[in-house]
Amino acid sequence: MRDAQGQWIVDPEFIPPLLSLAASPTLVSELGELLHRLQARRRRLMAMRRESNARMADFAVADVSLFWLLNALNSAEPVLSELHQDPSRHPELLYRELARLAGSLLTFSLEHHLEAIPRYRHASPEQVFPPLFALLDTLLEVSLPSRVIAIALEQGADREIWRGRLHDARLREGADFYLSVRSSLPPHQLQSRFPQLCKAGSHDDVAEVVNIALSGIAIKPLSHVPAAIPLRLENQYFALDLSTDAARAMLEAGNCTFYTPESLGDVKLELFAVLRS
């Protein structure tokens, strides 16, 4: 393929015939992302489980399907994790485990059939693994729909204002909001300074809050990140206090704004909403 300057470069997404998974960074990266999604869904299933006694974890009768889903994820994750940690293995081993997991997840889908699993073709891995990973993403979402909504934030020209739109009606019916923050500040400074200096609210409210030095929506640092949220080790995480009038005004307005002064360093914000039901 050609780059923006018209020079020939290697397509980073291309997967050539392999004798080792390590020969394709794309394949190893895709496997790592799949493992992250598996772990997030497994943690969510475990949270849904109720303990009947100290020796036995029990599911309600209506949740038998969740039990079998948890069984499928628990069976697949250790093997896939081992392949990710030791990518010197032959790609056919990865294919077998991915196909086995896809077959298990097809049990929970009414729209996909066994024929959707591509057969292994050593000479054409680009026709095998990308569609197989895409199928697994779809099946994981169908079997256990994600409760997290990523809300796109646009950074203003001055780099201090971030704006987003809260179009999804579910956000006003019952959701918790979390900020994932990366900064050039040391983590301990960001944890203490971000809740004090960042101003949050609706578009109109934040402009007023900044001008007259009010507090806006309270922001609280998190010691535990909800399992549904993508975890980035270099980021710090914060929750918005939705019990205030400013938070209710933000939800009613259907938009949100965050002011991050230069004293917080070079900041990158991500906003996630986790549905309560």
UniProtKB/TrEMBL annotation:
Pfam families annotated for this entry?
Answer: T6SS_VasE
Could you identify this protein by its name?
Answer: Type VI secretion protein
